[in-house]
Amino acid sequence: MHELTIPIHHKIYTLRGKQIMLDEDLAELYEVETRRLNEQVKRNSERFPDDFMFQLTKNEYENLKSQFAISSLEEHGGRRKMPYAFTENGVYMLSAVLKSKVAIEVSIEIMRTFTKLREFTLHYNALAKQLIELERKNDKKFKEVFHILDTLVNETKKTDEKVMGFIRDA
Q1: pLDDT tens, 42-58?
Q2: What Å distances lie between residue 111 and 15, 19, 107, 124, 153, CA to CA?
């Protein structure tokens, strides 16, 4: 099994409401040049519809760079074209066009990482729903408890006034 030196989950970003990986990160993981990866994609363009792969706008790339410290533009003297983003399906399709042993092993690990992220998201969303429900239920109960406490305090004041024999000004 190929030993990955880069944690895959650090290379998965959310953009346009989808989890994506950039061509330069995939090329690094697959141990190929970004140029070669993109050449293979162009040769097999029918395998990469828009929901599998799209090109970032300059603004999207600048935002990713600032949010996640992506610095390859500066390190490599700049890119002529904006990077391509690959969705989970696009990454899977890459393994079909990059036929090296490394590409197959890395694709398997990437697919496992996407699955783990999806499972984490499902568990996180379920937990968030439970917390919201608990908050709603407890909010009503706390209001009831505070109302009962207020009633008890007011009744205690009235009882104290009767027992002490004088009436307090409110």
Answers
A1: 999 999 999 999 999 99
A2: 18, 12, 6, 20, 61
Whether 138 is in a domain gets the answer no
> What CATH number corresponds to the domain at position 119?
3.10.260
- Angle, alpha carbons 107-120-16 (nearest 5°): 70
Range of the domain at 42: 8-124
**pLDDT tens digit string along 113-145?**
888 887 887 777 787 788 788 777 777 777 777
Number of domains making up the chain: 1
Q: How far apart are CA 15 and CA 10, in angstroms?
A: 14
CA dihedral 121, 124, 125, 131 (to 10 degrees): -170
Q: pLDDT value at position 85?
A: 95
- Mean pLDDT for 17-38 is 91
CA nearest neighbour of 109 among 33, 15, 1 = 1
In a domain, 154, yes or no: no
- Structural domain includes residue 141: no
